[in-house]
Design brief:
This protein has 5 domains: 50 residues, Immunoglobulin-like (Sandwich), CATH 2.60.40; 61 residues, no CATH class; 52 residues, no CATH class; 53 residues, no CATH class; 144 residues, Jelly Rolls, CATH 2.60.120.1340. The strands form 11 sheets. Strands 21, 22, 24, 27, 29 and 30 form a 6-stranded antiparallel sheet that branches. Strands 1-2-3-4 form a 4-stranded antiparallel sheet, with no helix packed on it. A 4-stranded antiparallel sheet has the order 23-28-25-26, with no helix packed on it. The chain is elongated. The chain is built from no helices and 30 strands. It is mainly beta and 440 residues long.
Amino acid sequence: MTYINTRIINNTKNTNEFNLLYYDNNTNINNRIINKKKQTYKQETLFSAYITYPILPIYGGTGITTYNIGDLIVATNSTTLSIIKAVEIGYVLTSNGINNIPKYNKIDLETMTSGILPAKNGGTDNSLYSIGDILCANTTLTLTTLSNTSSYNVLLSNGINQMPYYGKINLETCVSGILPISNGGLNFTTCSIGDLLFADSTTSLSKISNTSNNKTLVSQGINTNPIYDIIDLSSAMVSGILQITNGGTGSSLTAGVIYSTGTELNSASFPNDAYSYLLQLNSTSTIPRFVGCNVMLQYASISSSALITCSTVLPNDNTIPLITEGTQIFSLSFTPLLSTSMLYYKLQINIATASGAGVASMSLFSGASIIGATNCCYNNAKYNSGKLLSINASANTLARTISVRVGPSSGTCYINGITSGTRAFGGTSISTLEIIELLY
């Protein structure tokens, strides 16, 4: 027997009686009227319809028989109940709209909240900010914003229980210690009058103390400390030209003379090719000038006493000799000192023609260019000492090869020999080429 409900029956006006509703094992619902005073009861079957188990919501039940800890009962419609199961920590039950079952969710701070969270509850008391605002407590329970300000201001303390503020740093009151070099400081606090600061390494500064009069600060080279010293005018410590008004000459002349016009100093430089010049003064001008004189700049020569047989033809006609004609008897390398000088060539060749030979001639070349030529011995067993003199401009200072070539118009001729082809004077006959560079 299972009791479903009990209630007092008031409509019988008998306070000693009450009804007890129950259903038996046959699921009949019965009404037992109990008289408390007489301790008697009478029973009647109200209806014997079959009822389901568990009891549904329409009969006052839930329709649910098992639960888990934390389960919530929720109506899924007007006649049905369901369970919302518990979830992990941190979720809250949120509405899912009218006629929809609520559900557990994380709180969406953009859509599920309203108002401004106060500071006392962990909020900021503020909902609007400007770029650069700073939150600051203005009481023990509230926060406010400290607005940003212009560049190069810093946040400064204003004392206990006072709001901070933006301002400039007072270097007398707002700093302590010594500013290191790495932050733009000196790393020391005291100096003497006249001290100079210099870097003695890449990370430190030092001081040069003042010194006696008439000394200047002089560099000692890269990565070396400077020093005070007296200027050495003969060293690389000076540059430029000291002007006359400062006791100098006003000239950078290194080769020449300095002269006075009476009111100022002037200079006269030696010519660039100055090997022998005279400084000339005249009565019509106070300005001197350099004039050149004939001077030998250099001398070179080559000689040979060897017996040389020449059979290659050097024509004795009206054509200019070629470097391939005749036999070369000697050559000399020569480099002029000046491009404006003159070169004096003096050539003497001792030569004899063999019996039946033609006229013997000689030619002088600079490289492959002819300098001069002459015939020097007649044909058919003759002996002679031929000479050639020539003066030419040097034109430049390039090195050149001066060569001498000798040959007969036909047959054979001999240098430093006689007509029979043997040595002359026992080998003491000498042929010579001389070159003299002259300055005119």
